[in-house]
Amino acid sequence: MARIPVAELERLKREVSLVRLIQSQGHELKKRGKDWVMHCVFHEEKTPSLSISPEKNLYHCFGCGAAGSVLDWVMKTQGVSLPHAVQLLRNDAGLPGSEKVGVTRSHARHLPPLAAGSAASELEAAALLQSVAEFYHANLKQSPEALAYLESRGLTHPELVEHFQLGYANKTLTYRLPAGHTQAGKQVRQQLQAVGVLRSSGHEHLNGCLVVPVIGLEGGANAEQGRRVVQLYGRRLQPNHKIPAGQSRHLYLAAPLRGVWNEAALVGGGEVILCESLIDAMTFWCAGFRHVIAAYGVNGFGQDHWQALKHHGPRRVVIAYDRDAAGDAAAATLGEALRGAGIEVFRLLFPQGLDANAFARQVENPAQALGELLQRALWQGKGVVADEVIFADAKISAHEERPDTVFADAKMSAAEDETFPLAAAPQAAAVSDSEMPLAPVPCVPVSDSETPPEQFSENAQGDLLLAVADRHWRVRGWKKNLGPEQMRVNVQVRREASEQAEAAYYVDSFDLYAAKARSSYVKQASLELGVSEELLKRDLGQVLLKLEGLQEAAIRAALAPKNPTPTLSAEDEQSALELLRAPKLIERLEADLARCGVVGEASNLLAGYLAAVSRKLDQPLAVLIQSSSAAGKSSLMDAVLNLMPEEERIQYSAMTGQSLFYLGETDLQHRILAIAEEEGVRQAAYALKLLQSDGELTIASTGKDETTGNLVTKQYRVQGPVMLMLTTTAIDIDEELLNRCLVLTINESREQTEAIHAAQRHKQTLDGLLADAEKQAITRLHQNAQRLLKPLAVREKGDRFIFRLMV
Predict the structure, then answer these.
(1) Which regions span the lipid bilayer (predicted)?
(2) What is the pLDDT of residue 191?
């Protein structure tokens, strides 16, 4: 049992009335002042000397010195340990609003007696296991550590615990039994030892484990197991490194490994996924693949499993054992046996060293990732038997052609269950009732002389994967090549073990564009794998062509604008034009800013807005917002910037002296450069002043020539113009910077402060919450309007030309 929190102990001491508890046990109390007295139960006496204080909820005997809290009373009077006392008080004692306070042995839950040697003993043993499973199931719901373990393993489907009656054993089962020195207590403990729940020492066999009961299917392969608990599986909650050496992570009852977990998945005779462990099987189930069963370890595919396959007659089995030496060996042996029984077999391959649960916890969308692995499951062959194998109603002929089918991509949707983002789509969840859709694959296994079309994929680490027959390619580092003149990568090729040869691999890093390095790789890999150079050369050619396409796409993405201007829909463009053509645009602007939560500051907002719009001009304005600390200068700047398109504004908290010189040449052109505090750019003040005055920055710096490797002088140029917006709390500001900026000061009057407080209170109302939602629509409208603005030369009366912004 996990350590009891101190807060829980204090709660029981405080909330369980000691007076009511003692009265419920049949003791006679007498009132004496504020306290109650009684004859001490711990020693013989004629005059009452045991005093109970209702105020402190404590007892004290002036005769023998016994004293303590309600927990001490239960431990001493019942002769139990502290955890047992806590359990008794939790279950039997009256807490706030309850009248039940008795803590007596008679409340212990007696499990059904087992009549040893009788014909009904198996039924009674099943009933006993059912009672134990129900207790563990109720225990799990109240055990945060067990629920946290399920969450850590990604087993968070809301129906999982109830559907499979998952439980948790934490050493509290014996607390619910009659006392060990009584006849009933001895009998029930012997019964629990007989079925394997208790060890000979009296401790729970599955203590500290997540408990998964294996329940027989009514109308299943074994009629005697219908709706009975035939086995309990336990998985220790402790991390592997904390489990003592020599102790297994997986525990079962001493009884034979009977039953088939989730036998309902076999009903219908379609496809079924077979996992190595129950945790892996539940991972598939939570991802929406309900047609899944589990073996009890690599060597745990037992007689009951074969009987269930014969009874239900599935046509295809996908073996999803762990991707390690033991799992691969067991999958190969089992696959051969299944094919001998006339069943079509596929092998699902996880990344090396992973199982289903570990793989699902490494990917962002387990349902989609597992579906893709199922789609790429390797076909191991159709069953070949002497004449004909009959499984229930399904007949599989030895001469029947293998259908060109394999698991299709199972696309999952989180819309089925909002509480569980990985829930499968309805069609995937109902897979136990109907077969999954199938997709074509080659009719026969691929030989060395025939290479199938490439089937490239990408794992979670970004490695490029290719499977060709029994050869598996993995390419790393291809994303680093952003120049069309080189293709330096790390390439691994491996071959699966077969009856003719052992598994082998070869790995090296080289430039795929270098013919000599490519030829050397093919030659060495051919020697290591025992495969002809012609086949490896053909495979490597496919890899090279695929990488060229990926590299070209990566280069285009790198050269694409970092912040492309979004394309407006016709509806958005029309709404933006209506805003710009509004006859009272200034009043509309002030009203929209107020609806966005800005209080007052109408003149400053309008000035800041016009200055931000001037970014489109060849000589934009610069704004410096000055105020004392926490007066609202940042709010004013943010209110204006939020109405500007995101791709046309750049915001920094601080800048170093040289940082501006190394921006992209057009990164600042006709954009807004906003700095949170003027103090954060004092080192870059010189560059800012030049950028504002000259409209561009240039710097000469030493760099290495990419061709010769010699040091050369390189020129960096950053083009303007750029609109500057800064805030400051300083009183004395650099005059050269001050001369280039429009200085705005914040209204810090008492009336403005009261208005701000009123606005803050308004935000907590329903209207305020609705206004927050409306703010997004207003912001988007103004940003779209800004995207339509262009600088145009407009001629007025006379011969003068001025620039205005028009649509």
Answers:
(1) none
(2) 82
CATH number, domain containing residue 384: 3.40.1360.10
* Domain identity same for 308 and 162: no
- In this structure, the strands spanning 722-728 and 711-719 are unpaired
| Full residue range of the structural domain in which residue 255 is found | 109-259
Report whether 625 contacts 726 (CB < 8 A): yes
In 3-state terms, the chain is what percent helix, strand and coil (to 5)?
A: 40, 20, 40
Q: How many CB atoms lie within 10 A of CB 555?
A: 14
What DSSP line would sit under 124-172, residue for residue?
HHHHHHHHHHHHHHHHHHT-HHHHHHHHHTT---TTHHHHHT-EEE-S-
Closest CA to 150 of 212, 59, 78, 196: 212
CA neighbours within 13 Å on the CB side: how many for 536? 23
- Cα 620 to Cα 805: distance, rounded to the nearest angstrom: 12
What 8-state DSSP symbol labels residue 293? E
Residue 795: the pLDDT is 62
Among left, alpha and beta (phi > 0; psi -120 to 50; other), residue 701 is beta
The span from the CA of 36 to the CA of 19, in Å, is 8
Rounded Cα gap, residues 491 and 200, in angstroms = 56
**Distance set, CA 613 to CA 723, 757, 781 (Å):** 9, 30, 15
Rg of the Cα atoms in the chain: 38
Contacts 24+ apart (CB under 8 A), 297-303: 297/250, 298/322, 298/326, 298/327, 298/329, 298/330, 299/330, 300/257, 301/274, 301/334, 302/257, 302/258
Averaged pLDDT in 10-residue chunks for the chain of 807 residues: 75 86 85 89 86 90 88 83 78 44 40 44 75 89 89 92 91 76 81 84 86 87 79 85 75 80 87 94 94 91 91 92 92 92 91 92 91 89 52 34 35 34 34 36 36 65 82 86 81 79 84 89 86 86 86 77 73 86 86 80 86 87 85 84 87 81 80 81 77 82 80 85 86 76 84 80 74 80 87 64 50
- Whether residues 749 and 789 fall in one domain: yes
CATH number for the domain harbouring residue 21: 3.90.580.10
- Residue 768 within a domain: yes
Rounded to two decimals, the pTM is: 0.43
DSSP state at residue 216: B
User: How many structural domains does the chain have?
Assistant: 5
- Cα-based distances in Å from 290 to 234, 273, 692, 777: 22, 9, 65, 43
DSSP 563: S
Q: Cis omega (within 30 of 0) on the bond before 721?
A: yes
**Contact residues for 3 (Cβ-Cβ < 8 A; gap 6+):** none
Say if residues 207 and 169 touch (Cβ distance below 8 Å).
yes
Separation CA 217–CA 223 (nearest Å): 8
